[in-house]
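REVIEWER CHECKLIST
Item 1: Sequence provided? yes
Item 2: Single chain? yes
Item 3: Sequence as submitted:
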Amino acid sequence: MTVWDDLQGQPAVVAQLRQASMGEGLTHAWLFTGPPGSGRSNAAKAFAAALNCDQDDVTLRGCGTCPACLTILGETHADVSFVRTEKVTITIDEARDLVAKAGNRPSSARWRIIVVEDADRMAERTTNVLLKAIEEPTPRTIWMLCAPSPADVLVTIRSRCRAVALRLPPAADVAALLVKRDGVDPALAERAARAAQSHVGIARRLARDAEARERRLETVRFPLGLRGITAAVMMADKLVKIATEEATSSNEERDAAERASLLATLGAPETGTLPPAMRSQVKQLEDDQKRRAKRSVTDSLDRTLTDLLSFYRDVLIIQLGNAVELVNVELRSELEEFAQKSGPEVTLARMDAINNARKRITTTNVAPLLAVESMAASLIQ
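Item 4: Structure as written out by the authors:
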């Protein structure tokens, strides 16, 4: 086992990072880009582990078994910081804290490494705080930024970073990872990888959660009964509910565990009223969880609309002659019947309507239900 094992379907990226970890082409700033599910943050984490691996032989670095590799992969290494946000954006104060941390020399490892997993969630003013630190880095400090595309990062930042471009791995590679890492039945792993459109995290959830698979199938089948404005409004309401349920099911267990951990750390009494000092810290945690829940619903709704988009993607594939494999193979007969009722131009217009709704939901303050209702109206047969 090595740190590279989870980077399925990324041979060029692994080769690039392996070479850099041995000192060839290593630079102080890196920009990892690729669509959601491609493994940007996993690639950055593996690279960080390889750079600080305990092996003296450079060809063996990234062994995955030494203390340095294990603590970095577990995100507990003192010299490697992972920055992600559960909120809409990374704040300017958080960016200043990163710059201060980057100014310290590593305490025990070769490199102090700062991994920013949500670099696209920084406003221009916030990103500018990082600029000088990336332009004139402290010796032995390496920055790793992750974003969906280079365009999501200021040109002044990306021009100073070495690019690492990931792609969505083939569904077969994702399925193989689920079988190897999670012990999923091969047939179920294949279905989950295909339904997730090669998004590793979503595929894992679908493989392990039968209710998630049912919710997804319900979403994909919505267009089959979409006739009239009443049906469109009902579909919109249901889509938002599905996304909310998906987000809630993901957060409830995590929220409870975080609260229990905080109370244990504070030495809170098992019964009775909490002291004022403890109440303020619990309140802060609850506020953070509420902000995370809001983002979770937005992300979940975006994923729900992506599932809906796969229906029209398959319809378009059929209309254009079945050149590639369908995502929703189990619905082929219904998809073929639906495809006969319109042409590719209509299908493309419907896909545009879904993508426009996704953009409005993730980049503006529009009420999600209103955006989805508007979209649904444009999908009426």
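Item 5: Key structural point noted by reviewer: The beta strands are 29-33, 80-83, 112-116, 141-147, 162-165.
Item 6: Recommendation: ____
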